[in-house]
């Protein structure tokens, strides 16, 4: 997630911009830059890497200007590099733009602007904006930004400066956060409150499609139809630490609640009704897809669990055999790989040592490799043949939540894409599934309303020593992930099993009061699952079932039932994992554990 800071005032802008950006570091970034208006020109400084590098470079620029914009970039379109870093300029270098979000129709706009003679230097979606503003600029920056914004689809917070109007920063937001900070000697615009807290506690919270004009003397807020908006000043009473977490107590909780947004983001510009699935970094042809004899999905931890869902989805929809492997096993077991093998490597960080080694092995044996990763420019993204980026934004809590759901989306997108190319589903069937998938973010929002229910449930079971997670089909894959979440952050021992496996051994462990989490979302397997629940129930288990609304029969065999909004069972993992994440979170809280930094674990495992 990128960070934006802008300033217009009676003080030097550069140090204020850098200090503001430092307060946004928690959002994650891989490059940074500032643009300051000074003596009729834009002083632009951009670096790859940390803000310390930017501070070094800025010593050379020595801009004294009092109006500017700054940015930390978390790469999505194009690798982390100086050229892709923001701010981006128009060709005449009279307009500079910083952007947070994703511009869905940037390809279309790039083409349109290209035909008008505009030249692009970066791979970013953002670069269309300075050119669009340039195209519409007729002496009024606000009007030009308003006209440009009308052409944009997607999510954006923008900060814009222009040499022709050297006292102003113009900004706008749509589906991406932006606030205004007010002070006597200057005004700020920023992605988040911490960026301005050391300067002011008086802020305006902007709504979608509100435009702002900042000058040293004031702030004007204007609606998209040009009307002035009077806004109440919001006085910030909390500290910067709470602000970084957006008011949530922990990053994990914040990230759980970000899932509807990032699920939507990861589908953005890839899945649209009535259009082909667009995967700009997967270049496999129809013939190459038809020639695949075997798919391996290789990953570790949570990413491996996403792979389990991928196997069910690809085999069900595209009818290609899939094997899911733990990377540390795959790399040493001499797997059977040839040029008809496709290997899908899944890794949030893109740096996990075993996963990277698996990728290298697969490539050396002639396999085609697709990377599903969240980090643009990561080693895994650089070494794979094809990439599907998850757009989860930086994940800070060690326990993966939003990265997992976006990995699931990636799995479904690949499955649908392959199904189309393999001809295993009709165009109508694919369209219907796309519609069901696009409806998921709304259902996720509904499930998150179960927060209190999960908190109450956690208080009843947090003293347990052992728990079991059971499911069949897709539910079994989710059971694995639910169980891992519990282990990681609450240190409660838990096991996940395919429900049908129980009687082959593990049922011996069930005794009076043993907590069993039973997932029962799969229609075709519902009765079988109910039988498995009865098996543990008659042995004294305390069963907490998760089922779709309306499946009330399950109440006869369960101690408690958590109802989930109905979705296509194929996509059930996207909603059923959310309450399990919340349950683990609240159990961890009840036990007084360190939720965001659980013992013995690291966010990125770069050693074997
Ligand atoms: O960065 P990666 O996706 O490659 O990481 C893989 C695992 O280390 C990771 O998913 C780990 O299991 C998380 N702690 C799970 O919450």
Can you describe what's shown?
- With 608 residues, the protein is an alpha/beta fold.
- The chain has 3 domains: 3-242, Glutamine Phosphoribosylpyrophosphate, subunit 1, domain 1 (4-Layer Sandwich), CATH 3.60.20; 245-438, Glucose-6-phosphate isomerase like protein, domain 1 (Rossmann fold, 3-Layer(aba) Sandwich), CATH 3.40.50.10490; 449-608, Rossmann fold.
- 36% of the residues lie in helices and 23% in strands.
- The chain contains 20 helices and 24 strands.
- Strands 3-2-4-1-10-9-11-14 form an 8-stranded antiparallel sheet, with helices on one face. Strands 5-6-7-8-12-13 form a 6-stranded antiparallel sheet.
- Helix 19 links the parallel strand 22 (515-520) and strand 23 (542-548).
- Helix 4 (128-136) crosses helix 5 (141-150) and helix 8 runs antiparallel to helix 16 (440-448).
- The longest helix is centred in the last third of the chain and has 21 residues, at 402-422.
- It starts with a strand and ends in an 18-residue tail after the last helix.
- The model has no long low-confidence stretch (mean pLDDT 94).
- The structure holds 5-amino-5-deoxy-1-O-phosphono-D-mannitol.
- 5-amino-5-deoxy-1-O-phosphono-D-mannitol binds at residues 300-303, 347-349, 352, 355, 398-400, 488, 601, 604-605.
């Amino acid at each position: 997630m990128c960070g934006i800071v802008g300033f217009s005032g009676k003080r030097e802008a550069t140090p204020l911009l850098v200090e503001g950006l430092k307060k946004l570091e928690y959002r994650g970034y891989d490059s940074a830059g500032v643009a300051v208006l000074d003596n009729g020109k834009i002083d632009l400084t951009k670096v790859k890497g940390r803000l310390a590098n930017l501070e070094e470079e800025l010593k050379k620029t020595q801009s004294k200007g009092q109006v500017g914009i700054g940015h930390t970039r978390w790469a999505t379109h194009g690798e982390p590099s100086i050229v892709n870093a923001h701010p981006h300029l128009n060709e005449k270098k009279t307009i500079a733009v910083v952007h947070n979000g994703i511009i869905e129709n940037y390809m279309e706009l790039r083409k349109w602007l290209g035909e008008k003679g505009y030249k692009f230097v970066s791979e970013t979606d953002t670069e269309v904006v300075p050119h669009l503003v340039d195209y519409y600029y007729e002496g009024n920056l606000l009007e030009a930004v308003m006209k440009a914004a009308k052409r944009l689809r997607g999510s954006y917070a923008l900060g814009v400066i222009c040499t022709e109007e050297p006292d102003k920063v113009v900004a706008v937001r749509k589906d991406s956060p932006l606030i205004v900070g007010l002070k006597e000697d200057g005004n700020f615009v920023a992605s988040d409150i911490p960026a301005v807290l050391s300067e002011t506690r008086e802020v305006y919270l902007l709504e979608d499609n509100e435009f702002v004009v900042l000058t040293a003397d004031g702030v004007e807020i204007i609606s998209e139809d040009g009307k002035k908006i009077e806004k109440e000043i919001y006085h910030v009473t909390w500290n910067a630490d709470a602000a970084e977490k957006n008011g949530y107590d922990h990053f994990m909780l914040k990230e759980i609640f970000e899932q509807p947004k990032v699920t939507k983001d990861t589908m953005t510009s890839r899945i649209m009704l009535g259009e082909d699935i667009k995967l700009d970094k997967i270049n496999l042809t129809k013939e190459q897809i038809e020639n695949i004899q075997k798919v391996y999905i290789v990953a570790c931890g949570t990413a491996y669990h996403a792979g389990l869902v991928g196997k069910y989805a690809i085999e069900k929809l595209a009818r290609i055999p899939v094997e899911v492997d733990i990377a540390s096993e795959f790399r040493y077991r001499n797997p059977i790989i040839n040029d008809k093998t496709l290997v899908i490597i899944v890794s949030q960080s893109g740096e996990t040592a075993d996963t990277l080694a698996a990728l290298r092995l697969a490539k050396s044996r002639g396999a085609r490799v697709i990377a599903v990763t969240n980090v643009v420019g990561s080693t895994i993204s650089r070494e794979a043949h094809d990439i599907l980026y998850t757009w989860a934004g930086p994940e800070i809590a060690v326990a993966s939540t939003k990265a997992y759901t976006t990995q699931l989306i990636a799995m479904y997108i690949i499955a649908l894409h392959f199904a189309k190319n393999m001809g295993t589903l009709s165009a109508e069937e694919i369209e219907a599934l796309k519609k069901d998938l696009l409806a998921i973010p709304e259902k996720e929002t509904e499930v998150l309303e179960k927060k209190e229910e999960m908190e109450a449930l956690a208080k009843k079971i947090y003293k347990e020593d052992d728990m079991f997670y059971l499911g069949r089909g897709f539910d079994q894959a989710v059971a694995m992930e639910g169980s891992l979440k519990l282990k990681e952050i609450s240190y409660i021992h838990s096991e996940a099993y395919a429900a049908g496996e129980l009687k082959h051994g593990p049922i011996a462990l069930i005794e009076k009061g043993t907590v069993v989490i039973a997932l029962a979302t799969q229609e075709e397997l519902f009765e079988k699952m109910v039988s498995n629940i009865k098996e543990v129930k008659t042995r004294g288990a305390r069963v907490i079932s998760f089922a779709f609304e309306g499946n009330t029969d399950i109440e006869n065999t369960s101690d408690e039932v958590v109802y989930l909004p109905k979705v296509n069972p194929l996509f059930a993992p996207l909603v059923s994992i959310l309450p399990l994440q919340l349950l683990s979170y609240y159990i961890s809280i009840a036990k007084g554990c360190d939720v965001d930094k659980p013992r013995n674990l690291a966010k990125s495992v770069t050693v074997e």
